[in-house]
Write a structure and sequence with these properties.
CATH topology of the largest domain: Glucose Permease (Domain IIA)
Number of domains: 2
Oligomer: single chain
Radius of gyration: 20 Å
CATH class of the largest domain: Mainly Beta
Organism: Paenibacillus albidus
Structural class: mainly beta
Biased composition (Low complexity): 41-53
Region (Disordered): 29-66
Largest sheet: 9 strands, antiparallel
Keywords: Signal
Pfam families: Peptidase_M23
Distance between the termini: 38 Å
Number of strands: 18
CATH architecture of the largest domain: Distorted Sandwich
Length: 350
């Protein structure tokens, strides 16, 4: 795995770019994956660029299916109805016969699918489902009228032993404002970091207002609601490393793969190390050796490093080196386990 790949691959939906990315590598690195997407879509190794809100792509024939009906329609063999959901561009690339062949083989042996996550963001409705056995998953992006912009089906891998091995430290949210979990969970469809041991339990967090992460010009960092928010220490500890001189990406969508984490703070909490990455250039207020307390402001959220929009990458690992240490599931002080699409409540009283 390249060091740069696990960072900042945020999805942005347009008819040309709406495809679910299960990870941050190319298709050869993903096992047992089938993707249905327009041929004009960006490759999975490239992060989509933010765009204006998604316009409804429309379909050439009516479908009675709603987004939440898609998995059952696959199980019931309603291939014509599924194909009718496709956006015009997607429909041009894939016919009903291809839908039948691909989905028919995939659902063999599956009794049912249950929702794993749902997120409304930037004019899209993004769903993921898991089979009852937890071994197969579906992820799909819909436009505002229920047109299907992109779909992925995947044989899921799981790591139950480490999934249940939580941090000793009880962490508080490292921010004061409410943020949206863009990536988070214990499967690769809800959290593309999951396939990488070094970042398996990481979170990517944005701020959404009225279901949009930005307002105004999407190429300007200042348009993003998360840009410039206070980032705080998630628990008492000692700062072990800092980076504070990486420029925020301009325009938004241009990414710095040479400095994947961008500006960051790493804190030692007694053998468990928190990483707060993609901070705003020059905003970090602590230095190595400093003691910090829970809720203390340590910097501002930015768009530095391999990041496609202003967001916070947060994780806890068993060592101070992000690329060699193992990620650990975070035990949150409130006992919750937020996943993709959840609103992550900050502490305004900090």
């Amino acid at each position: 795995m390249k060091r740069t790949r696990p960072f900042g691959k945020m999805i942005w939906g347009t008819a040309a770019l709406a495809v679910i990315l299960s990870g941050c590598g190319n298709g050869a690195e993903q096992n047992n994956t089938e993707q249905v997407k327009p041929k004009t879509t960006e490759a999975a190794t490239a992060a989509p660029t933010p765009s204006q809100p998604v316009e409804s792509a429309g379909t050439s024939e009516a479908s009675t299916l709603q987004p939440e009906d898609l998995p059952q329609a696959m199980l019931d063999g309603k291939y014509k109805e599924i194909h009718a959901l496709f956006s015009g561009e997607l429909k041009q690339q894939f016919g009903e016969t291809e839908v039948k062949t691909t989905t028919g083989e995939f659902v063999q042996g599956v009794d049912a699918f249950a929702p794993s996550s749902m997120m409304l963001l930037n004019g899209t409705e993004q769903w993921t489902w898991k089979s009852t056995a937890g071994d197969k998953g579906i992820s799909a992006v819909f436009d505002q009228k229920g047109g299907l912009l992109g779909i992925q089906i995947l044989n899921l891998q799981s790591y139950p032993k480490t999934d249940q091995t939580m941090t000793r430290t009880a962490f508080s949210p490292p921010f004061k404002d409410d943020l949206l979990v863009y990536w988070g969970g214990t499967n690769v469809l809800d959290n593309y970091h999951y396939e990488h041991e070094t970042q398996r339990y990481a979170y990517d967090l944005v701020q959404a207002v009225d279901q949009f992460s930005y307002s105004g010009d999407p190429l300007k960092n200042e348009s993003y609601h998360a840009f410039g928010l206070d980032i705080t220490a998630p628990a008492d500890g000692t700062v072990v490393s800092v980076k504070n001189d990486i420029a925020d990406n301009v325009p938004v969508g241009v990414m710095n793969e040479k400095e994947p984490a961008g500006n960051l703070v790493v804190i030692d909490h007694g053998g468990e190390y928190s990483y707060l990455a993609h901070l705003k250039k020059g905003s970090v207020t602590v230095k190595p050796g400093d003691s910090v307390t829970t809720g203390q402001v340590i910097g501002l959220l930015g768009n530095s490093g391999n990041s496609s929009e202003a967001h916070l990458h947060f994780q806890v690992s068993d060592g101070p080196d992000l690329f060699t240490s193992k990620s650990i599931p975070v035990r949150w002080a409130d006992g919750k386990s937020p996943v993709k699409g959840d609103t992550f409540t900050g502490d305004l009283a900090q």
